Amino acid sequence: MRRYSRITGTGSSLPPRRLTNADLVAELAQRGVETSDDWIVERTGIRARHFAERDVCSSDLGLEAARNALDAAGLQPQDIDLIIVATSTPDMVFPSTACILQNKLGANGCPAFDVQAVCSGFVYALTVADAMIQSGSAKRALVVGAEVFSRILDFDDRTTCVLFGDGAGAVVLEASETPGILSSDLHADGKHVGILCVPGNVYGGKVLGDPLLKMDGQAVFKLAVGVLEKAARAALDKAGMTDADVDWLIPHQANIRIMQSTAKKLGLPMDKVVVTVDQHGNTSAASIPLALDHAVRNGQAKPGQTLLLEGVGGGFTWGAVLLKL
Ligand SMILES: CC(C)(COP(=O)(O)OP(=O)(O)OC[C@H]1O[C@@H](n2cnc3c(N)ncnc32)[C@H](O)[C@@H]1OP(=O)(O)O)[C@@H](O)C(=O)NCCC(=O)NCCS
Fold it and tell me: b/e string for 44-55 if b means 16 or more Cβ within 10 A?
């Protein structure tokens, strides 16, 4: 009998400090950086985002999301036999945020590692966890997307600092005789490294190069719109399904215009698209599990429904995961 993996619990976490566009506009004005609520809403759909306090790391947000997902699945930390954290804002250079989270959670002993695929991180991590469960090397995985992007924003660059936020989302993925995850389709193209990156690195105790986020917004926009449709269609083809079978599209929450364009290309109306970008901004690897948890908890996404998750981000990376809830 084929072994599948299935999501049995979701959870999320947002730091309490919430900044509306008006709050951010006022803070930026103090630095001499000019922007407006109208510009941000019109170009991105973002109205608010959450920023973590200085002493809060990705593992702290991931921990709360993980505990919520475990509660929803009716499991204890010791029941978990695999932890994967998708993050581009790790607590430390090493060890992995997954190991730090594992210790905070009290799930010590099981394999734990990070996946680095920027905003596609969660679909990458979910695909890896699914493969490990299908192969029999894990039974109950915790898959987390956790970010503190506020740490790597250049608040003098209005073209990027208004776009991102902090947060975490998590799922418990368990072995199951019924699907579960139906298919996935992942890609990367390293020739686009420069259009979205944090180019600095650590050398001899100092940061070499710029440690803040750089983005060519228009290049990212164009690439994202093209590849997301292809990955979504490939995941549907692999499962022998069509866009008509999709109950909910849960895209990476970067920009409402990218989401609208992808939904249109897939022939899906916006009332089948889970939208949280207005309240969270772009939380990178956390955005999809945050949106998924939001949809589950507010009763939008129901057991038995077909969900299409899709992510795109720095690398350039992109991918989609099709699943039955
Ligand atoms: C970043 C993004 C919102 C910019 O929107 P855009 O329509 O491409 O805007 P442009 O870059 O052409 O800039 C238009 C004008 O707005 C200005 N502008 C940029 N940021 C601004 C801000 N925060 N407030 C006010 N004006 C701003 C620019 O300076 C430019 O002014 P100019 O015409 O006088 O030169 C858009 O390109 C985008 O969403 N890209 C994808 C980003 C993304 O999703 N990244 C993450 C992927 S994982």
Answer: bbbbbbbbbeee
pLDDT at 1: 77
- Do residues 283 and 147 make contact, with C-beta atoms less than 8 angstroms apart? yes
The DSSP secondary structure of 63-101, one letter per residue, reads HHHHHHHHHHHT--GGG--EEEEE-SS-SSSSS-HHHHH
Q: Which of 193, 218, 258 to mutate for ligand 1's pocket (most ligand atoms within 8 Å of CB)?
A: 218
Active site residues: 119, 252, 282
Mark the ranges of the chain whose per-residue pLDDT is less than 50: none
Q: What per-residue confidence (pLDDT) applies to 2?
A: 86
pTM of the model: 0.97
Cis-peptide into 316, omega within 30 deg:
yes
pLDDT given at position 126: 98
Q: Which residue has the CA at smallest separation from atom 37 of ligand 1? A: 217
Query: What pLDDT does 18 receive?
Result: 98
C-alpha to C-alpha distance for 180 and 173, rounded to whole angstroms: 9
- In this predicted structure, what is the pLDDT of residue 161? 98
Question: What residues flank ligand 1, with Cβ below 6 Å?
Answer: 35, 39, 43-44, 119, 158-159, 162, 215, 217-218, 220-221, 224, 254-255, 258, 282, 312-313
